[in-house]
Write a structure and sequence with these properties.
The chain is of the alpha+beta class. Helix content is 22%, strand content 28%. The protein contains three helices and twelve strands. The strands form four sheets. Strands 5-12-11-8 form a four-stranded mixed β-sheet, with no helix packed on it. Strands 4-3-7 form a three-stranded antiparallel β-sheet, with no helix packed on it. Strand 9 and strand 10 form a beta hairpin. The longest helix is centred in the first third of the chain and has 33 residues.
Length: 210
């Protein structure tokens, strides 16, 4: 489309430039009611039709709203024959409630969930003295040598709160402190370990160092 608009001749219906005052084809004087005038009229007609449709839609909406308004509660409660309004089932009085709540039906009693019984404590049956990770009943050391000894229980139990007591039957042969045995002099003595009243024993032989 060019910058200069065109107009339509009212006599020959041909289009020509809007700068011309007459039609170059038939010589008719340019009419004020050209193409632009027709477009303006169409726009006005469309606007009027749109307004009419909008008014019709608003009217139809208002009709639907007013026709669907519910009846007031007072009108709905009235019966057609003017009879008594049904107020629904009557609630029981206080005496009936007392009778229901005070029933002695044994099936209504709530059963108490028994509390779990505590697991029985495991009793130690035997204490084994270990050396180098293995249970030992006879171990040989040298004078001045110091080695750690351990223990384990049968059955194995949690030793939390239980203390092991170590003892040497002859401290002139070896001494023991918290399971560590130190050879003192040549000879033989018994290493004892007591846990929860149960005692395990191991013979410790001490030889003189060469």
């Amino acid at each position: 489309m060019g910058v200069i608009s065109e107009v339509k001749c009212s006599r020959c219906d041909r289009r020509y430039s809007g700068f011309r005052g007459r039609c170059p084809y038939c010589g008719a004087r340019r009419s004020k009611r050209g193409k632009r005038a027709e477009d303006t009229e169409n726009a006005k007609a469309k606007l009027i039709i749109g307004v009419i449709l909008l008014v019709v839609l608003i009217g139809a909406t208002m009709v639907l709203i007013f026709t669907n308004i519910p009846e007031s509660p007072s009108d709905a409660a009235e019966t057609p024959s003017g009879g008594v309004i049904d107020e629904g089932p009557l609630l029981p009085d206080d005496s009936d409630i007392d009778e229901v709540t005070s029933s002695d039906n044994p099936d209504d009693t709530i059963e108490e969930t028994p509390s779990p019984s505590p697991s029985p404590e495991i009793v130690i049956q035997e204490v084994l003295i270990t050396y180098g990770g293995e249970p030992k009943t006879d171990v040989t050391l040298k004078v001045g040598e110091s080695q750690p000894f351990r223990f384990k229980t049968v059955p194995e139990v949690e030793l939390e709160g239980k203390k092991a007591t170590w003892e040497s039957s002859d401290e002139s042969v070896f001494m023991v402190v918290d399971g560590r045995v130190t050879g003192v002099g040549a000879g033989q003595a018994t290493l004892k370990c007591t846990v929860d009243g149960v005692t395990g024993e191991c013979i410790v032989r001490v030889r003189a160092a060469r």
